[in-house]
Amino acid sequence: AQKEPHGGELKNLYLSEEEAAEEKAQSKDWPSWDLTPRQLCDIELLLNGGFSPLEGFLGKADYDSVVADMRLTDGLLWPIPITLDVSQHFADSVSEGDVIALRDREGVLVATMTIADKWTPDKRKECEGVLGTTDDTHPEVDRLLNHSGPVYLGGRLKGVQAPRHFDFTHIRHSPREMRDLFAKWGWRKVVAFQTRNPLHRAHQELTFRAAREAEANLLLHPVVGLTKPGDIDYFTRVRCYDRLMQHYPEQTSTLSLLPLAMRMAGPREALWHGIIRKNYGCTHFIIGRDHAGPGKDSKGEDFYGPYDAQDLFVEHQEELDISLVPFKQMVYVQERAQYAPVDEVEDHETQLNISGTELRRRLKHNLELPEWFSFPEVVAVLRERHPPLTEQGFTLFFTGFSGSGKSTIANAVMTKLMEMGGRRVTLLDGDVVRKNLSSELGFSKEHRNLNIERIGFVASEITKNGGVAICAPIAPYRGSRRVVRELIEPLGGFLEIHVNTPLEVCEARDRKGLYAKARAGVIKEFTGISDPYEEPENPEMRIDTTDITIDQAAQQVLLKLEKLGYLA
Ligand code: PPS
Prior knowledge:
The protein is an alpha/beta fold. The chain is 38% helix and 16% strand.
């Protein structure tokens, strides 16, 4: 017999086909809520029983009890609140007892919920209780305090249509499907490994040992819902896992993807992960160093101790009814040419380790990654995803007064890049953009910001796909320049270049005669004359064209690109 799910019964909240069709027909006039990416993850695991015994988003009493005591009101252990947060506007439009339609982003009906409770939670209290902190460098604190809806709705769910996935469908399983597979394969003991990172030899070693120690089969169960902001995208990770699977003995191990939205809640999250794996039919769960850790707080200290998660798990081991397989950090011992737990390394031995940060650095600069660290096939996938800087896209964002020289320098830089070859370049000059993208816009603050955000969007797409975008608008407002930077930096290079030729010089040049018209009041809201320009505080470069030629200015930009590593 397989391990019982949490609370004794594996839930399946989906209606039968006929019932679902009926529910869908009735739902047309019900208030509709579009689920956020995070809520879509939660609802998938609620509906398919991954979160058994929950039958919907938590009501107020269960929520309060989970936050304070890690338990549902019936006493069952449940460490993480699963809540439906909505906007004030939507909350005001519904009442307890109403049935609402929950839809995905395309409007497809996923489930319906009868509202049992509607309340305004104390989010700070939730942060303290669940996460042990209100420091918003913690990504979940940030989400709760700064981004989530102010009102929670709780109630039972009726599943109509499972959230749809078009990727990796052959390795996505519900708890029922997973359990059936284990039964079919004759896997009685299964140890689960949770991860949100690419796996290297250290992890493989650790999972191997865990499976061997427990005399169990292994389920690699990586999270592909939402993980820590900044993590490697899951498409890349899953390709890595797939390559890695070839290095496990056949018949012993399998890979399945878990659409979980992580909270980075450390110890409490570890318990939750264990419960979910139990629902998937696993008997053992691996917890290593700093499980589901959110990184460092605003004072540079760890939010949770490295082995707090293991300790809390041990405390609740019996109730959890899934065995902990604790692990210390694994390091490579040079003299032994083997991996070992860090506390088993002798003083005279040399331990080697490549951190995540160091890995990213080496990928960025196309430096060697030794075989002891990872498998060549895995490294190849990572290199494909992180091409060296010479192949990565970037944006040059020139900003400055009209007549400062930004368009001319931008043009010169583009021409030189074309001459060098090997790069695809798009020039998004102020005038070009105003003609093709923003022809209906004027020069109010609102319109200028809209113009810059459009430029930013186009530049981000170009950068993402490995091209070079050269932008040269005035872009007088810090806020919209920051928006553009934040949009592009995660996708490739971003260089803000302040062409800080003084206003007097620009006005004296007055190449288009605009300054004269602005002084005469013919042109209103003219930047520098009758409209503000907020100076960049930390641009990557400043160029004053008062005393240098365009050629010299363009050279400065190229030398900067060379220095940063973007030119081959
Ligand atoms: S912004 O603020 O970034 O949206 O401006 P941008 O798209 O770069 O457009 C600036 C060009 O429009 C012409 N122009 C004006 N500029 C500033 N203020 C006012 N009121 C204005 N009216 C027209 C001007 O030619 C700018 O071009 P450049 O190349 O900068 O001289």
